[in-house]
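In this supplementary section we document a worked example of the pipeline. Step one takes a protein sequence of length 452 as its only input; no multiple sequence alignment statistics are reported here. Step two produces a three-dimensional model, which step three serialises into structure tokens for compact storage. The input and output of this example are shown verbatim.
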Amino acid sequence: MIHIIKKEEDDQRQLHVTVEIPEEEAQKGMRDVARTLGREMRFPGFRPGKVPYPVVLSRLGEEKLRAEALEKMIDNVFTEVRQEVDEPPYLQAEVTHLELKPMQVTFMFPLSPTVNLGNYRELREEVPVVTVSEEELDALVQDLRERHSIVETVERPADFDDLVTITGEGHVLNEDGEPGEKVLEAADQDLLLDNNQLVFGAEFVTHLVGMSAGEQKTFRVTLPDHFPGEGYAGKLAEFNLTVTAVKRRELPELDDELAKLEGDYDTLVELREARRADLLEYKAQETRSERFDQLIAGVKASGAVVYPPAAVKHEIDQIIEEMKLEVIRYGLEWDEYVAGGHKTEAALRDSLKDAGTKRLESGLILRKFIAEERLRATRADIAAQAYRQLRGIDKQLHDYLFEALTKGRGTDSIINEVLMKKAHERIEAILSGNAPDLAELQAAADAYDEEE
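The serialised model returned by step three reads:
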């Protein structure tokens, strides 16, 4: 029987429990260890299993016997201690301290995080109206035309709107006119000769127009203001490039046939409206993310999020596992990936600490917000979300996938999407001062739970 001599919770939701093992139990454990070692080790003058306890004690020393006895007893000790902990541990407990005489063990139990949302319902912010312009929609449809374009190699000089395949390099010129930092390294890279799309600018495009396959050219251009990379814009750069192929693009007509190429659409009008909805949702999602960040900032200012440090470690573990799956999916070796970017996994884990902390805190706040706001994913919500997700899917697969998303393994994912959407809508309602009354929400939630 153990004796708890100290039990206290710190300010990071960690419960520290120190127990003492009665000396008679400790002595019994030491004798059990001595009997085992007396059978396994050679003691001159004694047959295996017949070595007296004082001989083993004298040979190995009391400290070693106590240490090995405690190691063998610790699982049973933990089982007893666990029964004395009222709150279920959030994560696996750890042994943080050992004493051999008297025999004592200190366990640390990470407890569930606590979240106080503070006065989040008093947050106010103007919520912008999200719209999609016709110009934005035209650009999306043009991208679709280019994606479905037919490309063929031609034997003529390159012209505007052609694709050219280039090989070579480009360098920013230093003050002495010598090549400096590299801004382009191309090995059979395709470039579209379009002044509006190429990051190197119209001047760069002009130099390539008129070149034929097999031609080499060295030229200088001033990098445009929008050139990516800090400190490059406005600098003079020299390029040494060879055109290895010239390709003509034939774009499909802007008609109903284009809509049919893109999926289950009969007309161009249907396609445009579907893309309008997609872009509207994308913009809305960006706005929701900004509003959620405001909620998190508000909670941190007026509320509190408290969690054990082990929770961040656990979150990083999950991020690492997700990264491993992605690396394997792309056919790479995990060890090589880590060695190439971070040298060691420990360094990678350290670099993920901020991301892990942010993801943990965001998840905790979101779950508490969903609970406080009595948000639910009804059967109708789940079905509607599944229909949205399966839009454009082949009719033969639709029913099978719908069943999987609403009643099978995909249900949790759909429920999460529904709750996320409702949470973002509620955040916007709070920020604009139009949130429903909590008492009414509780009544509605209770009624739904009774129906279920």
